């Protein structure tokens, strides 16, 4: 039976969760060798993606992204991060900022599977649909 990427990710989490950085540095080449021996080295990207999800779930972390037309001031990011923490049921929030020059203004917030679209583009589209109807 072949081990799937999620199983490798869970194994990787289990063997690294109580280790120091130096201990992890020793383990990683061993894990890579195991993947090579099992003919799974080509799935390393998928395994690392799954590992991130396993790690975040077990460590009570939620990744969030804010997309805006321009880089937001650090004070705005700090306030948004604080707000998201109040909504996150004691979860740690990792907030990533993405700049998208295609937005006319406003922002789009992605947190987990939820999308909060506060963009000018969305508001203009809503206005257009209201006027058409």
UniProtKB/TrEMBL annotation:
Pfam families: OSCP. The keyword Ion transport applies. Keywords: ATP synthesis, Hydrogen ion transport, Ion transport, Membrane, Transport. It comes from the Bacteria. One of its GO terms (cellular component) is membrane. The keyword Membrane applies. One of its GO terms (molecular function) is proton-transporting ATP synthase activity, rotational mechanism. Its main location: membrane. InterPro entries: ATPase_OSCP/dsu. It is found in: Membrane. This is ATP synthase F1 subunit delta.
């Amino acid at each position: 039976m072949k081990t799937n990427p999620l199983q490798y990710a869970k194994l990787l989490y289990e063997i690294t969760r109580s280790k120091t950085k130096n201990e992890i540095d020793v383990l990683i080449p061993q894990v890579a060798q195991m993947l090579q021996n099992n003919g799974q080295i080509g799935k390393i990207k998928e395994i690392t993606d799954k590992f991130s999800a396993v790690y975040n779930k077990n460590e009570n972390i939620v990744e969030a992204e804010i997309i805006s037309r321009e880089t937001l001031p650090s004070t705005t990011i700090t306030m948004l991060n604080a707000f998201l923490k109040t909504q996150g049921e004691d979860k740690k929030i990792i907030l990533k900022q993405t700049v998208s020059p295609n937005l006319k203004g406003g922002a789009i917030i992605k947190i987990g599977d939820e999308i909060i679209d506060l963009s000018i583009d969305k508001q203009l589209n809503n206005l257009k649909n209201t006027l058409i109807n």
